[in-house]
Design brief:
The protein is 32% helix and 24% strand. It has helices at residues 14-25, 41-54, 86-95, 117-126, and strands at 4-8, 29-32, 72-80, 83-84, 101-108, 132-137. Strands 1, 2, 3, 4, 5 and 6 form a 6-stranded mixed beta sheet that branches. It starts with a strand and ends in a 5-residue tail after the last strand. The model has no long low-confidence stretch (mean pLDDT 96).
Length: 142
């Protein structure tokens, strides 16, 4: 059994690529959060931004992996309208109580703003302090 699990949500693919790279580097298992909201096209883009701005939890697929088996879970996701993507928010709201230690990797489009305040909010949602947090520019690998 591996000690670390990398959990990610990726709409456009850049978070997926980063998470896969991170899982290989850390010899970790990997799990993708399944978004149940249609986010295709311009309306999907607008809906995603709105959900991010409003800090909305949106439907995700049920998580069929035992999170309690892992010492550390690294949660990866994009920034939408200055906040964590809604599927990641939903995942943490529903499942953080099953996570022993948590780390975060966020991916942003803004090269200047690192959105470090998001980490405190994620800790608040998870109900625990992270043991590591990283803010990457879109397309950057961890």
């Amino acid at each position: 059994m591996k000690e670390t699990l990398v959990v990610y949500y990726s709409k456009a693919g850049s978070v997926k690529k980063m998470a896969e790279d991170l899982a290989v580097k850390r010899d970790s298992d990997i799990y993708e959060i399944q978004d149940l909201v249609n986010r295709n096209g311009i309306f999907g883009f607008i809906k995603s931004g709105y959900h991010g701005l409003k800090k909305t939890c949106t439907p995700i697929g049920s998580v069929d992996i035992d999170l309690t088996r892992y010492k550390t879970v690294v949660v990866c996701g994009p920034i939408w309208a200055g906040n964590i993507a809604s599927p990641v928010r939903t995942f943490l709201t529903k499942y953080a109580d099953k996570i022993a230690q948590i780390e975060y990797v966020i991916m942003r489009g803004d090269k200047k703003n690192e959105y470090k305040e998001v980490f405190a909010e994620l800790d608040n949602i998870a109900g625990k302090n992270n043991v590591g947090a990283k803010s990457l520019i879109d397309g950057e690998l961890a």
